[in-house]
Amino acid sequence: MPQDLSATPEAPKEDGRPKWDNKFQYILSCIGFAVGLGNVWRFPYLCQIHGGGAFLIPYFIALVFEGIPLLHLELALGQCLRKGSIGAWNTISPYLGGIGVGSWMVSILVSLFYNTVLTWVMWYFINSFQEPLPWSVCPLNENRTGFNEECYESTAVNYFWYRKTLNITPDIAESGTFQWWLILCLAACWAIVYLCTIRGIETTGKAIYVTAIFPYLVLTIFLIQGLTLPGATEGLIYLFTPKLNTLKNPRVWLDAATQIFFSLSLAFGGLIAFASYNPEKNDCEKDAVTVAIVNSMTSLYASIPVFSVLGFKATTAYWDCLDRNIIHIINEFDLPEESIMRQNYTSWISFLNSSYPEKIAGLKLKSCDLQEFLDQSVSGTGLAFIVFTQAIILMPGSQAWAILFFIMLFSLGLSSMFGNIEGVFTPLLELQILPKSAPKELLSGIICLISFLIALCFTLGSGSYWIDIFDRYAASVPLLVIAFFEVIGVVYIYKIKRKL
Fold it and tell me: Measured between alpha carbons, how far is 395 from 229 in angstroms, rounded to an integer?
């Protein structure tokens, strides 16, 4: 289908557009756009709740029959017509221009909340240089006579996230105040995006070498460290043990198809924009397969260190539970210290239950089951800012690991932002909303400044509620609708036009 596009007589000739320095730079930009935060905090979660290794079956089926064909379509479209999303679909038919406009609007909306997530990452990164880590201990109360009550009743990790970072309001109806620390981080994030996208691919093409490659280095470091942690094996066994009965659930197949779709950043318009700077004879089919496979392999690769650390966290929590029960038993029965160990805890409990059932029942011991701790699934910001930060506290050299982790998240998110901004920048550049004499730097600056001003609403106390709304509605159904009309437009309308 995209091969037909490359044969079209309507394809424009050389038009003085910028070009990629080399093929690797282009592939790296597409991979950086596709590989984002979802590969680290969404894919492992789906594997966890949908049968471990069994989830890979519908995932790779969706990759072959959905992901690669749609990716091939978008790369071929941009490469052949050498235009951004709006211009490309207008070239095929003026009636399809709305597809490009829809992609452009989604790219704007996603950029707004995606860069706000990077704002949170930057805030955590800055605080990672403190010793001890600020989310590892509760702060003192105003009288300095004890710990802050709100933090003490929850956990230090939750308190730092909900109060010190978001300063969240009870509900969305109560806006709260602007958080100055988030405003400063938001301004810094948009300034970084502006500097990297100031001249389109001419600058993002240079920055992508760092932002796309560096996360793999950090993931490898986390992989080596994670595999040495106690409980890592249990985490990996839990992740990859297939539970084939889950495949009977249609939700598993739907989530697999959805993950492939969003993970490859389809229908955003960024891929069309990237491909439009390619020479017309470039093998876009091979590019589509390469980008799709690297993206999926990255998801699998990221799952290993993530679940090694989560297995460590679950094992540590399991051991803490056992230790608390052991202390209660030793004190109640006046037993010698170290008479009950983790290794013989089960046999002691069985003996005491049969000999002193009333005493044991009166202790109200907690149920300690490693499987229950492993089953505590979470994704998105909950994984990055609560579960993972809590696990980092328990690791030796926690400060260094926190710094590395948040640098990695920032790099992943920044490379995805390049694609989102390119999906906004290229169509506007082609529509010439500014005079031809106006430099590209001015257009990039206007985009980033307006985006920053709009995104200020996310720094309110109710900002996280608005982020959830944007995340749920701005880039879910709209992208599916856009992709549907992309296929209809190319298969039917464009095909009919060529025959005429």
Answer: 8
Neighbours of 388 (CB within 10 A): 23
What is the C-alpha to C-alpha distance for residues 226 and 241, in angstroms, rounded to an integer? 19
Backbone angles phi, psi at 155, to 5 degrees: -140, 160
Say how many C-beta atoms besides its own lie within 10 A of residue 228's C-beta.
11
CA 483/CA 488 separation, integer angstroms: 9
CA angle 497, 498, 499 (to 5 degrees): 90
**By C-alpha distance, which of 37, 56, 32 is closest to 46?**
56
Comparing CA positions, the residue from 36, 74, 20 lying closest to residue 204 is: 20
Q: Can you tell me the distance from the alpha carbon of 257 to that of 64, in angstroms, rounded to the nearest whole number?
A: 10
Coil/strand/helix, residue 334: coil
Cα diameter, the chain: 93
- DSSP characters for 374-430? HT----THHIIIIIHHHHHHHSTTHHHHHHHHHHHHHHHHHHHHHHHHHHHHHHHHH
Q: Which residues pair with 147 in a beta bridge?
A: 140
Inter-residue contact 243 to 52 (CB < 8 Å):
yes
**Cβ 292 vs Cβ 69: under 8 Å:** no
> Going by C-beta distance under 8 Å and a sequence separation of 6 or more, which residues neighbour residue 143?
none
Token readout for 184 is 């400063």
φ and ψ at residue 64, rounded to 5 degrees: -75, -45
Show pLDDT as tens, one digit a residue, over the chain (500 residues): 444 444 443 444 455 688 999 999 999 999 999 999 988 888 888 888 887 888 999 999 999 999 999 999 999 999 999 999 999 999 998 889 999 999 999 999 999 999 999 999 999 999 999 988 999 998 888 877 778 888 888 889 999 999 999 999 999 999 999 999 999 999 999 999 999 999 889 999 999 999 999 999 999 999 999 999 999 999 898 888 888 888 899 989 988 888 998 899 999 999 999 999 999 889 999 999 999 999 999 999 999 998 898 899 889 989 999 998 888 888 888 888 878 888 888 888 888 888 888 888 888 888 888 888 887 766 667 888 888 898 899 888 999 999 999 999 999 999 999 999 999 999 998 888 888 778 889 999 999 999 999 999 999 999 999 999 988 888 778 888 999 999 998 888 877 555 43
The pTM of this model reads: 0.89
